[in-house]
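Q: I'm building a small set of examples for a reading group on sequence design. Run inverse folding on the following structure and report the sequence directly after it, with nothing in between.
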């Protein structure tokens, strides 16, 4: 009987059938007329209404992408490319809110453009969860693959919306990839900007990256917290001195060249007989 009426299945007992089209728990008794009871249900208003509702509704599974689909791979690659383009040109994630819609209107005949859906939330997820980890892994792998023996580390703090953000960069010479490379390997928030916090943060980053023994130089701001004053002899209470003790290496201290140049121009201008601004 089930082969003849596929929209039914066995109910709570052998004298009942459950309708798969109507709401769950819709049971039809077949103890009186058998198949005729099923036919009566099929012509009922309740069953007709359920059929109309099912035909007008879309299954949830239709919204999921088909796995191992060439078209979906192309869409994924396109969205990743636009996410990279956003970061490459320092655009905001907000700018991606209208990009997908714009592409659909600009290229109405493109099946690929029709499937693009990469607004700010998805773009941010691609950048932070895919592109950024890949970029860091690629930079660290180059030390082993290209036999890079030395590097320098740089760190600086920046306040943003009450957060103390500290990027850490490494600079090294990669003869296989065009020479001097500067790579961001971590960008985190710290609770303060003391010498102990910054030095510990840089040391932890180098150890996790496997670069503590390769690091030969430290670059930072020229303030007293980082280098201990003009003569760099500030009783060890600065980032540079603490980092040398933590790494047990002979680090080279490199100040910020932009600040050095600015100071040279400022002091030079003060000793001139004319007012530069006038």
């Amino acid at each position: 009987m089930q082969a003849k009426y596929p929209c039914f299945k066995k109910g709570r007992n052998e004298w009942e059938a459950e309708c798969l089209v109507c709401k769950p728990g819709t049971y039809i008794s077949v103890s009186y007329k058998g198949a005729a009871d099923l036919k009566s249900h099929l012509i009922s208003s309740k069953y007709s209404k359920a059929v109309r509702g099912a035909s007008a509704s879309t299954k949830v599974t239709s919204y999921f992408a088909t796995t191992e689909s060439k078209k979906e791979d192309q869409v994924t690659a396109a969205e990743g490319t636009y996410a990279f383009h956003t970061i490459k040109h320092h655009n905001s994630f907000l700018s991606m809110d209208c990009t997908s819609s714009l592409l659909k209107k600009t290229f109405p005949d493109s099946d690929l453009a029709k499937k693009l859906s990469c607004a700010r939330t998805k773009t941010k997820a691609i950048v932070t969860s895919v592109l950024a980890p890949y970029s860091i892994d690629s930079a660290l792998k180059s030390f082993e693959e290209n036999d890079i023996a030395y590097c320098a580390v740089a760190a600086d703090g920046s306040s943003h919306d009450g957060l103390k953000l500290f990027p850490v960069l490494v600079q090294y010479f990669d003869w296989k990839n065009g020479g001097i490379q500067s790579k961001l390997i971590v960008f985190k928030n710290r609770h303060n900007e003391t010498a102990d916090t910054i030095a510990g943060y840089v040391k932890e980053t180098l150890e996790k990256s496997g670069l503590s023994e390769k690091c030969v130089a430290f670059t930072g701001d020229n303030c007293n917290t980082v280098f201990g004053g003009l003569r760099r002899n500030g009783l060890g209470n600065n980032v540079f001195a603490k980092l040398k003790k933590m790494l047990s290496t002979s680090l080279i201290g490199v100040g910020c060249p932009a600040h050095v140049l600015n100071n040279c121009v400022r002091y030079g201008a003060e000793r001139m007989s004319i007012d530069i601004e006038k």
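The first strand starts at residue 8 and ends at 10.
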